[in-house]
Amino acid sequence: MKKLNDLLALLLLVLVFSVFSTSCDINSDPLTPDTNVGDTLWIHEKPVVEKTAWIRDMPLAIGKDGSIYYLADGANNSFEPLRVYAINKDDGSLKWKTEQLASSHPGSNIVVDDDGTVYIISNTKLYSIDPSTGSINWEWEVPETIIFEGNVVGSYGAAGGLALANNGDLILKTIGTGSYYRAMYCVNPQGTTRWYRVIGASTINITIGSTGIIFDYEYSGNPNIHYLYAVNPDDGGVYWRTQMNYSGSGSNNIAVTDNGDLLCSIANDSLGLLNPATGEYIWKVVSQTNYKYKLIGKEGLVSVYDQWSGRHYYNISNGAEEKVIESNAGDPMTFDSNGNYYRGASQGMVCYNKDGEVIWSFNSGGSNGWTLTISNDNIIYLVSGDKVFAIQGDSPLAQSGWPRVSHDNRNTYNYSKH
Predict the structure, then answer these.
(1) How many CB atoms lie within 10 A of CB 21?
(2) Which 3 state secondary structure label does DSSP give 89?
(3) Does a structural domain hold residue 220?
(4) Could you report the per-residue pLDDT of 349-386, keeping only the tens digit for each?
(5) I want to staple 348 with a disulfide (CB 3.0 to 4.6 A). Which of 23, 61, 162, 364 is the partner?
(6) Is residue 116 part of a domain?
């Protein structure tokens, strides 16, 4: 009888322990709400300032800690100088906003360094911003004069084209109007000019290639002849230049392929692929495009949009046109790691597969389309009016090809940065 009682007591103890353990497991692992693709995670509304200010329709940037950065300013009768705003990624709350910058004219995208430092050009000044507080670390300003061929020449004007070099230096150039000598400048992370070189500047952004070489559209001579220049990041020396029959504008970019080759607009109606070491053409092709933003998707196809005939895909190996899809549907903004692409639309944003078929869409009531950004943790950020939407996606920004105009979520224009 005693043995039976002992056995029953043991079974009871096991049962109690089992119930207690199960209860502990449930309490220590609470269920989380389901989140579906396309769900709104949060909405941030830009803080009211004394004068009307607008969120700029420019690529958002994502910081090393996941913070989201945007630009806002006012113009005309509601002049409000430019500021950078930072949002917390968890809930969309305002983290900080900077003091007023030089003007209402942003000369570049927001660029984020490897250590999280935030950079922006406003008119003639380059600002370094502390990512924790939004305070200004330093200001660098375009010099009033420089030495060129032994002479002191005027050099003061608006800057642009900001890119991040492999070693953290900032590469920019003067691109404004007026009578002065334009130059490319290299500024180190402490705000000191390392070198400069006088150039015939275009408004097309500077790109950093796979080996750290600087690539830039420039012109030279009288009459002006346009070239693609390859520049040494250490001292500004020129490795080579290749003639282009393309004057270009800010509606263009140089894209770098996965093996380091350079995809360029070489004329108003043609594309070319160049060897980055020599500047020699690998191929040239006439392209039915007049809108020159170029992206390279996961499959290695070049995507260029033409407002009249749709989006054209070219084979990166030989320049052959593979297909044309989505007539009058708008410019693609970015590719994700699944090969899908996204663009801003009148109502918000649309996600397409590689064949141009709609997978899903999001209605934000409008879209500042060029702000569209996909984080590395599958969140899509989009501006609509004065609001920033965080939208649940299902894949991150592509890590291969050239998935957005500025290459990556830090807007570095650098093949090696992600």
Answers:
(1) 10
(2) coil
(3) yes
(4) 999 988 888 999 999 998 888 899 999 999 999 999 99
(5) 364
(6) yes
